[in-house]
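Quick one: sequence plus NAP SMILES, need structure tokens.
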Amino acid sequence: MDKIPVAVLGATGLVGQRFIEILSKHPWFEVEYVAASERSAGLKYADVVNWVLSNEIPGSVANLVVGSVYDVPDDIEIVFSALPSSIAELVEVSLARRGFTVVSNASPLRMEPDIPLLNPEVNHDHINLLKVQRRRRAWKGYILKNPNCTTVILTLSLAPIFNEYGIEQLMVTTMQAISGAGLRGVPAYLITDNIIPYIEKEEVKVMTETRKILGKLSERGKVEPLSLPIAVTTTRVPVLDGHMEVVYIKTSNEAEPSEIMDILENFKSLPQELKLPTAPSKPVIVRKEKDRPQPRLDRLAGNGMSVTVGRVEKMEELGDRWIQYVVLGHNTIRGAAGTAVLIAELYTKTMGLSH
Ligand SMILES: NC(=O)c1ccc[n+]([C@@H]2O[C@H](COP(=O)([O-])OP(=O)(O)OC[C@H]3O[C@@H](n4cnc5c(N)ncnc54)[C@H](OP(=O)(O)O)[C@@H]3O)[C@@H](O)[C@H]2O)c1
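Reply:
Sure thing.
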């Protein structure tokens, strides 16, 4: 069967490069168009990209000429967006109006009630919001969003616990990699030998997006956000890739750490059942060593698509139902490009094209 032609917008950035890497080996999708800013447009991809990944630039993309985000050719089926949030909404809406299916990493529109915000193992059923989107907006295409990188990693580790025991309260402190801020994001002088205890707008995103993702889709086609008190502190640390998060949960029903580890370790969902190409066989990997997970050792678990959980312990001083753990995931793979590709696979298999 012919591959589905796809485009990558923001293809020269950190998330864009991950898209190119993942899609170059993809069994269903073929990158036929790349776009970036005016600065790069008209030049050969290999000549303009500041390639930072350890694999070579895939030959199939190296010679493509970088185009404008406004000139996506009509024969493209799926557009992956890794655009800055400042321009993403304008571009993505105009593409959806023209009939493209847009899968986007950028934050605008994530909280719109008819835009699915998907972490496929956690809330694949929310893809049905596309029917509401089609009714409400006069678009010929669709927009689907993947969550903020921190939220993808967090909700993948929360979902199995939430499904089994319920969650009453949640506290999270993050240690986020430099790559989370993009290629030109954090100056070396500010982050080397340092920790910055603030990431703009990040904490609100983690709270609101987590509640939407764990919310229930009603028969009326509305997601009721989960009513869950969440306290979040996000920090930037001098790690290249891999966000670590320390999580404290008060469960609704008491659970032993061994039971929680068991549930996390055995968690599987629709992407695994459908054998989607980018779905990791184990979405959550549990490490029993006291000093794991670590970014350098664990960020590429499951080709960067699994999250790794360790230090699952009871917090007896706070009460019987408090549990603590540490979770780590790759922010530009599981937290961005990889999850967007998984969303496109879910869409292709369940809603859209005939693959
Ligand atoms: N990094 C992460 O871990 C992560 C995780 C989740 C979500 N995200 C989101 O994903 C998006 C991309 O992030 P990133 O880290 O890849 O950023 P980045 O490294 O700064 O890359 C930005 C990309 O957008 C292009 N661009 C910039 N201004 C443009 C314009 N006016 N018109 C068209 N293209 C333009 C750049 O092209 P040039 O090279 O030509 O300037 C580059 O390709 C952001 O919305 C970010 O919030 C990032």
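DSSP finds 13 helices and 13 strands in the chain. Residues 4-148+337-350 form a domain with the Rossmann fold fold (CATH 3.40.50.720).
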